[in-house]
Amino acid sequence: MAQEAEMQKQDVSDGADEQAAAVEQQDSRAPEPAVRDGEPSARAGGRSVEVGNFRVFSDLRLPEYDMGSCKAYAADNLRREEGGAFALVTDPTVPTRHDLMRFLTGVHIGGQIDLLDYEIVHWPLYERNTMVLFYEKPAGGRVLVPGEKQRKIDEHDFAKVVIEPLMNVLQAVADKGMTHRNIRADNLFFGDPMSEKVVVGDCCSAPAGFNQPLVYETISRMTADPAGRGLGSVLDDLYALGMTIAALGIGHTPLEKLREQDIIDVKLSKGSFQAVVMNEKLPLVLIEPVRGLLCDDPQERWGFAELHAWIDGRRAKPVQSNTERRAARSQNISGKDYYTARSLAQGISKNWVNSLAPLRDGTVEIWLRRGLADNDRAKHMAEAIRQLQWAGADKRAAEDILIAKSIIILDPSGAIRFKGFSAMVDGLGSMLSYDVQHGRGPQRFSDVVVRDIPSFWFGRQVGYSPEIQKLQQAYKNLRYYIQQQSAGYGYERCLYAIVRNQHCLSPMIEKDYVVDISQLLPALEKAAADLPEDSWPVDRHIAAFIATRLEDDVEAQLLALQNPSDEVEYSRAIISMLALVQWRHGPDNLQNLSHWVARLMEPAVKVFHSKARRERVEHEIPKLAKRGNLVELYNLINDEQERRKDQTEFITAVEEYSEAESEVFDLESSGPARLELAEKVGQQAAAFASTMIALLTVSALFLMHMW
C-alpha cells in the first residue's frame, strides 16, 4: 500500500514534469493560446498572461511555493501596487477543495497565507482549462527547506511563533465545519521579514491529505492511499500540528530516512510518539505538547483547550499510554510476525491471497481470543467465517469479502481495504476521481460499493457521531446509484454526488474544466461546432452532472433516458434537461447548441399526429434555433395545449374514420339482400301505383257518364 500510495503522487508529478519539459522545449517561439469563448478574460503579452485582476508570468517559476504536482509562478496583483503574489496552477486531473477555496478567498486569517482569488484558466502547459489559485506572497521564506539548514526558532518562542498562529487557522476552519489537512513543517513560511510569526501555505489545490507525507497522517488514515485519506476532522489536523512541532524541534521531518512501509510498521508497533522520540531528541519544552497531540487515541488527544492551558503555563490533561495492546505470541502472515490487531490488518491487506487460509480455518480468530483476549473481535471474526460457508456460486467474491471484513474487524477505525483499493469512507469520492482520471477506471470503487463493504465498516463504529451518520446516509445513495446502470446513474452519479468540486469528465467538455452547472452550456456551445451532427449533447457524465448540480428534479428525464430505443421520449428528455439548465443559469443565446439540438429534434416532432401541425413545427424549429433559446425549442414540441388539441383531433378523426369504414363494410357485405329488398319494394310500389291509376280512371269515367 505504501508503494502504491507513493505511485499515486508520483503519477501526477511525473506527468506534470514531462509536460513542463515539453513546454520549456517549445521556448518563447510558441504563441500564447487564444482566448476561447466563455473563458475568463486573458490576454497574451509576451511571456505573461492577464487573468482577471492578475498578470501571471508563465516563464517565471517559483518552486518554493509548489504544492505537490501544482506548480507556482510569479504574478502581479493589478489592483494593488504593494505586496507580491504568486499563482498556483493546479493539476486538472486532481480535484481541488472548492468549498475551502470559497471560504478562504478574500478572508484574512492570521496564520494562513491570504488566498486572493481563483479562476478557471486555459493553461498552455496542460493545453486545457484548469484552476489557478492566486496567493499573497509571504514576506519571509520557507521555514523548513529539505536539504538546507533550518532557520532557528527559539524553543521558548514556539508558542508565539508557531503554535498560536496555526491554532488560529485550525480553529477558524473547524468553526466552518471543515478541515485544513495540509499542516506540515515544509508548508510553513515566515509571515514577516523578522520571522516573528509563521503562516501555513496552500490547502485547496488537492484532496485533503493528498500532499501530506505519510508521517503526518494519523494511524487510522496513513493506511489509505493519498487520494483516499479523506477530509477527516480537526483531530487529524491537531495530530499533524503535533508532528509539525516535532519536525521543527528536531530540525527535519521525523522518520524521513525510513521507507513508507517501515514508517507504518513502527507507528503501528510502538505508537506515534514513541516512533518519533526513539531516535530523536526533542527539546524538553516541546515534549508535553508533542506527546499530547500525537496521542493515537482520538479521545485522549489534546485539543484546543489543552493547548491553551499549556501555553498559559497551566497543567494540561495528562496523556495515557496509547500503545496498542500487544499479543503474547505473534500471528504469522506470509512469513512475517504480527503482534497487534492493527498491524495484522495491514499485513493482511498487503498479502491478500496468502491471508485467506489463516482466516478461513479460524487461526486468526483463535489468536484474537487467546493471544489478545479480545472476545468481541473474535466473535465478529467467527461470524464473518460462517457467512463464507453460506456463500453461493461466487465463492471467490465471498472470500474477498471475508478478507475485507476481517481487516475492518481488526482495525475498525482504519481505511477500507479491498485488494489494491484503500480509502477512508470519507475519501471514497476523491479515490474514485483519482482512479477514473488516471487510467484505473471505476471498477475498484464499484467492487467495494456493490459488495457493501462500507456498511460493515459503519456497523463496527462505536458510539454516535453526526459525521458518521451523514456519511452513512450518503453511502446508501451511492449503492443505489451503482445498481442503476442507465444514463444519469452508475459510477458517474456517485462521482459528482460525493465530490462536489469535481469537474465534468464528459469527453465533449472535459478540457473546459466545468465545475459549476452555469459553465455547462457555454462549454457545450463551444463543443457544438466540432462534434458530429448525429451525436447527442448529453452523455452519461453530463446527465449525472446535471442530476447532481441542478436544483430541479430531473428523475423523470433520467427515467426516459433508460430506453434509448424510444426515440421520441429519449430526445424530449435530453432537450428538457438542457432547457432546464438554460432557464436556470443561462446564457440566453446558444446558437451552436440550439442548431445542434434542432437537428436532433426530428423524433420529438413525431409526437404530433397531424401532418399539418408537424410541418408547422418543423418550419418553426430553424427560426427558433437562430435565436439560440433551448427553452423555446422545448416549448415548441412540448406545448401541452397543442398536444391535447392534437390528441383530441386525432381521437375524433379515428372515430370518424371508424364509422365511415363501418358503413363501407356494411354496404359491401350486404349487397344481395339489398337487391332482393329493392325488388320487393318496387313490386309493392308498382302494385300500389297501378291500383291508384285504376281508381282514378274508374272515377273519371263515372263522372263523365253522369254528366
Automatic annotation (TrEMBL):
<dbReference type="InterPro" id="IPR000719">
    <property type="entry name" value="Prot_kinase_dom"/>
</dbReference>
<protein>
    <recommendedName>
        <fullName>Protein kinase domain-containing protein</fullName>
    </recommendedName>
</protein>
<dbReference type="InterPro" id="IPR011009">
    <property type="entry name" value="Kinase-like_dom_sf"/>
</dbReference>
<feature type="transmembrane region" description="Helical">
    <location>
        <begin position="685"/>
        <end position="704"/>
    </location>
</feature>
<feature type="domain" description="Protein kinase">
    <location>
        <begin position="43"/>
        <end position="311"/>
    </location>
</feature>
<feature type="region of interest" description="Disordered">
    <location>
        <begin position="1"/>
        <end position="46"/>
    </location>
</feature>
<feature type="compositionally biased region" description="Basic and acidic residues">
    <location>
        <begin position="1"/>
        <end position="12"/>
    </location>
</feature>
<keyword id="KW-0472">Membrane</keyword>
<keyword id="KW-0812">Transmembrane</keyword>
<keyword id="KW-1133">Transmembrane helix</keyword>
<feature type="compositionally biased region" description="Basic and acidic residues">
    <location>
        <begin position="26"/>
        <end position="40"/>
    </location>
</feature>
